[in-house]
């Protein structure tokens, strides 16, 4: 599949998704903001299920996931995020779960009646996933008790189940982590909402000797880091797609504004400084888009270097979106900071993707590690 352009069917599908996001999903977001802000928007999740988008999380490849996220983000960032969180929380079940686990949860996730969450971060282990301290203490053959805390978990404490990563072998780093599927109603599991700059709920989870068994393990015992990284390698390029969708929305708003805004005896676009700035915004957005598509295509083709490509795509796209949205605000002036303005919304939304699923600094570390591994695969690394 060519990675530098979309075929007509893909282009048409993206246009359809933008229209659906504006016409059917955005009204559900506006209603929830009036009635019950700060909670999981279950009607929105259910509508994503009715539209067949949640099911596509498990039947499509990485490129399709990117196209969905970019298209939804352009018209309704809340719908994009709801879709992405369902995928992030449930992908480990789809890819590593047992038949019983998949049969119980994936149909409900696909129809939008069950909300999923990915519980990796902790107060002392955000970007350093190998430093997890949530402990799974042995309680008999094939049985454990989870004790500790998770923090900054999207959809917590309102999700119906959590993909939880816990330490099963002490002092083993990444090799001693196991992934568990933990339903929200397990005894000893409680949560609380965190007051954060976010359009969706983010919370902390407390595990007080929460019982889990071998039937709850995702993948293999002590191999949960593989589950986490396999999930992140798929979703990191699509975080970049989310960022590209926001950047494109900001760019299009800027094109419209500068074309009609009177300034200094002409239109804003007539000022060379403004025109060049808009060109720079477009250049960076397109470069980020192409890198996202290339990383997704590499994942779908099982090509070499997927971790590096995924990290590059997320890094470039999220940093680009921050730049483009900031420049769009600057060119719009004070009106862009009025509550309810598209750019005011994007300005708040665009910051978090540079942190979650591995901060920009972590992505640079991954890229450097992969580069040196590739360069010195057959020789001793330099001093």
Automatic annotation (TrEMBL):
Organism: Streptomyces guryensis
Cofactor(s) annotated in UniProt: FAD
CDD domains in alphabetical order: ACAD
Cited PANTHER family: ACYL-COA DEHYDROGENASE, BLR3437 PROTEIN
Family (UniProt): Belongs to the acyl-CoA dehydrogenase family.
Protein name as it appears in the record: Acyl-CoA dehydrogenase
InterPro entries on file: Acyl-CoA_DH_CS (IPR006089), Acyl-CoA_Oxase/DH_mid-dom (IPR006091), Acyl-CoA_Oxase/DH_mid-dom_sf (IPR046373), AcylCo_DH-like_C (IPR036250), AcylCo_DH/oxidase_C (IPR009075), AcylCoA_DH/ox_N (IPR013786), AcylCoA_DH/ox_N_sf (IPR037069), AcylCoA_DH/oxidase_NM_dom_sf (IPR009100)
Lineage: Bacteria, Bacillati, Actinomycetota, Actinomycetes, Kitasatosporales
Residue ranges of every copy of the Acyl-CoA oxidase/dehydrogenase middle domain listed in the record: 117-208
């Amino acid at each position: 599949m060519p990675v530098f352009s979309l075929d007509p069917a893909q282009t048409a599908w993206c246009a359809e998704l933008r229209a659906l996001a504006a016409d059917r999903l955005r009204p559900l977001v506006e209603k929830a903001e009036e009635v019950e802000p700060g909670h999981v928007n279950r009607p929105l999740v259910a509508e994503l299920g009715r539209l067949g988008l949640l099911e596509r999380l498990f039947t499509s490849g990485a490129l399709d996931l990117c196209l969905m996220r970019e298209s939804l983000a352009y018209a309704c960032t809340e719908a994009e995020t709801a879709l992405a969180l369902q995928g992030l929380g449930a992908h480990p079940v789809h890819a590593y779960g047992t038949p019983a686990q998949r049969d119980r949860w994936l149909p409900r996730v696909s129809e939008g009646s069950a909300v999923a969450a990915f519980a990796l971060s902790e107060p002392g282990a955000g970007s350093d996933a190998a430093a997890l301290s949530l402990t799974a203490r042995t309680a008999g053959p094939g049985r454990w008790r989870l004790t500790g805390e998770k923090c900054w978990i999207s959809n917590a404490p309102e999700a119906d189940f959590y993909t939880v990563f816990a330490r099963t072998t002490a002092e083993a780093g990444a090799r001693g982590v196991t992934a568990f599927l933990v339903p929200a109603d397990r005894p000893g599991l409680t949560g609380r909402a965190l007051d954060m700059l976010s359009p969706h709920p983010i919370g902390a989870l407390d595990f007080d000797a929460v019982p889990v068994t071998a039937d709850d393990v995702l993948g293999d015992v002590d191999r949960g880091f593989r589950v986490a990284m396999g999930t992140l390698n798929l979703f990191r390029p699509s975080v970049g797609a989310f960022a590209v969708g926001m950047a494109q929305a900001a760019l299009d708003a800027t094109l419209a504004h500068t074309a009609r805004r009177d300034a200094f005896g002409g239109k804003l676009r007539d000022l060379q400084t403004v025109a060049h700035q808009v060109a720079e915004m477009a250049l960076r957005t397109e470069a980020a888009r192409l890198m996202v598509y290339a990383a997704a295509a590499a994942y779908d083709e099982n090509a070499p270097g997927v971790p590096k490509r995924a990290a590059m795509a997320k890094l470039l796209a999220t940093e680009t979106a921050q730049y483009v949205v900031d420049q769009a605000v600057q060119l719009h002036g004070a009106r862009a900071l009025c509550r309810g303005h598209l750019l005011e919304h994007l300005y708040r939304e665009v910051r978090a993707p540079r942190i979650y699923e591995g901060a920009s600094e972590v992505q640079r570390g991954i890229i450097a590690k992969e580069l040196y591994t590739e360069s010195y695969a057959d020789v001793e690394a330099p001093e």
